[in-house]
Amino acid sequence: MPQLIASVKGVEVKHVYLTKNRTTLGRKPGNDIVLDTMVVSGQHCAFDLVGVADVFLQDLGSTNGTYVNDHMVRERTRLSDGDVIAIGPYRIRYLQASEEPTSSFGETQAFLSDSMLQPQMQASFAVISGSSAGLEVPVVKAVTTFGRPGVSVVSVAHRRNGFFVTHLAGESVPLLNGRALGDDATLLSDQDVLDLAGTQMRFQLRE
C-alpha cells in the first residue's frame, strides 16, 4: 500500500501508510499526520487514496505552501512513485507500494534468497479498469501488497520460480482470470488479469 516517509535533515521522523480515503496533515492534533511546528498550518494538506494505487495531494490553503519536487502545489495533484514533498523543514518521500513482512523470519529469508536467484524479469501490473485505469505499478520488492484495506488486499511474492499472488485480507475475494483465489499462493503468468473489488489489473512480465 502507498506510504509516506517524513524526514528532517535526513533523519526519519515519521513513517505513515495511507489506508484511508483521505489522510490529513497539519499542526493541529486532529490531523492524521501531525507535524508540530509553526511553519506547518493547522490543516496544511491532504492525501486522497483513489482506486487501487492512485494518491492525490491537495493543499488546504496553507500559509507557507506545499511543494512537490520543488514545485508549489496549486491544485489537486496526482503523486508519482518517489516524489518528494516539501513542507517547511520536512521532506516527505512518497512510495507507491510497500514491502510487507511475512509471518516468520524463515519465510522472509526464503523470499529474499529466491528473488536473488530469479532471472532478471521485470514485473508490473497495468490497471485496466476503474479510476486508476492506465496506471502501471512495478513489482520490485520480495513481497508487495496491493488493494484497499478492509475491502480486498493481496500480496505478490517474488520467488525463485516466479511471482505468486495470495489473498491477505478483506471480505471481497480477489479474482484471477475470473476465478476466485484460494487459500494457497497462486503462480502468476504474463497477461493474467487480477480483479480487486472491481478494479482489474493485468500482470505483465518482461525480460
TrEMBL record:
PROSITE patterns from the UniProt entry: FHA_DOMAIN (PS50006)
InterPro entries: Cell_Proc_Reg/RNA_Proc (IPR050923), FHA_dom (IPR000253), SMAD_FHA_dom_sf (IPR008984)
Domain named FHA: residues: 23-73
Superkingdom classification of source: Bacteria
Family matches, as Gene3D superfamilies: 2.60.200.20
PANTHER family xref list: NUCLEAR INHIBITOR OF PROTEIN PHOSPHATASE-1
Name of this protein: FHA domain-containing protein
Species assigned in the record: Ramlibacter agri
